[in-house]
Design brief:
Elements (H helix, E strand, L loop, with lengths): L2 E9 L9 E7 L2 E6 L9 E3 L5 E4 L1 E6 L12 H10 L2 E6 L10 H10 L6 E6 L13 H7 L3 E2 L9 H11 L6 E2 L5 H4 L4 E2 L2 H6 L3 E2 L1 H18 L3 E3 L5 H12 L4 E6 H5 L21 H13 L4 E3 L27 H5 L5 H8 L21 E11 L18 E11 L2 E4 L1
Parallel strand pairs: 1-4, 1-5, 6-7, 7-8, 8-9, 10-13, 11-12, 13-14, 14-15
Antiparallel strand pairs: 1-2, 2-3, 5-16, 16-17, 17-18
Helix pairs in contact: 2-3, 4-7, 7-8, 8-10
């Protein structure tokens, strides 16, 4: 793949050309030349786009595509196309398919579905067999097949001894264990945040305490085992405090937050719109503020869209019975820019790769071209025309966003909308 990117502003603090408007010559997938004004004697494809900005390729640490088993919700092929259109050059795929991705063959299968794609797919294997929380899955075998971490997606590990053993065992091969932050007996049948709005709406509450107890437990287990832990999608102010204290003690822990938990509070639930039914639930404004502050000071290591397509039959029903989940790839960039500067937004979207053992490429000569192309300055209202996912369950519908993505150049391929 050869191309010449014209007049692009580089947004990459690791690049020698950070904040400069330059041309970027790409030959055979490598950045061969960066300069102010490059000629094109070999007549390569030229990429000229309005207010073009270029950054390192973005990474999402938690996406669900349904396949195998739930192709009606999303396929891997269309999911990767959606990721590319949304600016992501690499995604970590959750194990919540049917069958659950819990062995060598399953990891090999999903990787094969992404062969020769611009977006790199990194499978996360289930932590326990069939994600039932009873017996450990084949962690080492899945590592050899290409799994980058182990996680029972949105399924808490209720048995603390099982979590202890998982942390100890995975440490033998530097495996990353992920633990969903929810204590099931405390959360009970709660479907929204336990607070004033849950009482007003007559919906069962899932208290912040359920998350915080699990986070505290897992941090104690981490300290005991000296393992390697990632806590996905925290949602409360107290969770931020707990993880901040753990990092001060030099524990080997990272965490993420779902973008929607930074922006929406449980105040949006008054119309019983099931697109807002997510796990962990939307919390309060003080929680949002604490999560944003946690991102700014580095307590929270990365954001995720927690992209989870759900078919209409399981979303457009009574709130109590609707499945949890929202899609988020298409709205990620524009939503983050409502909170942060472009520089901070790009920094956030490119964080997290090293935690999952994924290599990074800066925008410098000689590096592999792993690039996201975007315009940070457009304003628009997000609607169905912006969605390329099979399922349309986005809580961002009707939200004003800032910034659009043009596509990616990665894995020796160009994908533009």
């Amino acid at each position: 793949m050869n191309a010449l990117i014209k007049s692009a502003t580089v947004v990459d603090s690791k690049s020698d050309f950070h904040n400069e408007k330059v041309d970027i010559l790409i030959e055979k997938g490598l950045i061969s030349k960066i300069a102010k004004d490059l000629d094109n004697p070999k007549n390569y494809q030229e990429i000229k786009l309005r207010n073009l900005h270029v950054s390192q390729g973005w990474f999402d640490s938690s996406v669900s595509f349904g396949e195998p088993g739930y192709e009606d919700r999303e396929t891997i092929a269309n999911g990767l196309k959606t990721a590319a259109n949304s600016g992501f050059t690499s995604v970590a795929l959750n194990a919540n398919s049917q069958p659950v991705i819990d062995n060598y063959a399953h990891i090999t299968f999903v990787k094969s579905k992404a062969n020769d794609n611009a977006v790199k797919l990194y499978p996360i294997g289930a932590l326990t067999q069939m994600s039932k929380g009873e017996d450990l899955a084949e962690l080492y075998d899945m590592t050899n097949a290409g799994a980058i971490a182990f996680y029972d997606y949105q399924q808490p590990i209720s048995n603390p001894n099982l979590m202890k053993i998982a942390l100890q065992y995975a440490s033998n091969f530097d495996g990353l264990v992920c633990s969903f932050p929810q204590e099931s007996k405390i959360s009970g049948l709660g479907v929204v945040n336990e607070h004033i709005n849950s009482t007003k709406l007559g919906l069962k509450g899932n208290p912040a305490l359920a998350e915080e107890l699990q986070v505290a437990r897992d941090l104690f287990l981490l300290e005991y085992t000296e393992g390697k832990l990632h806590i996905p999608t925290i949602s409360t102010a107290k969770s931020v405090e707990l993880i901040r204290a753990a990092k001060a003690k030099k524990l080997n822990v990272t965490c993420s937050v779902a973008i929607h938990n930074l922006i929406f509070t449980d105040d949006v639930l008054e119309d019983f719109d099931t697109n807002y039914k997510v796990l962990p639930p939307l919390r309060t404004q003080p929680d949002c503020d604490a999560l944003i502050e946690g991102l700014k000071d580095g307590t929270i290591d990365m954001v995720t869209t927690d992209h989870n397509p759900i078919d209409i039959e399981h979303k457009k029903i009574e709130f109590d019975f609707a499945k949890y989940g929202t899609i988020g790839l298409e709205s990620a960039f524009g939503a983050l820019q409502n909170i942060f500067t472009t520089k901070k937004t790009i920094s956030i979207l490119t964080q997290g790769k090293s935690r999952f053992g994924i290599s990074e490429s800066s925008i410098n000569e000689g590096e592999h071209a792993d690039l996201t192309l975007f315009n940070p300055d457009t304003n628009y209202e997000f609607n169905n025309t912006h969605i390329s996912s099979r399922s349309k369950n986005s809580m961002f519908l009707g939200t004003k966003l800032k910034g659009e993505t043009y596509g990616i150049i990665a894995n020796n391929k160009i994908v533009l909308k």
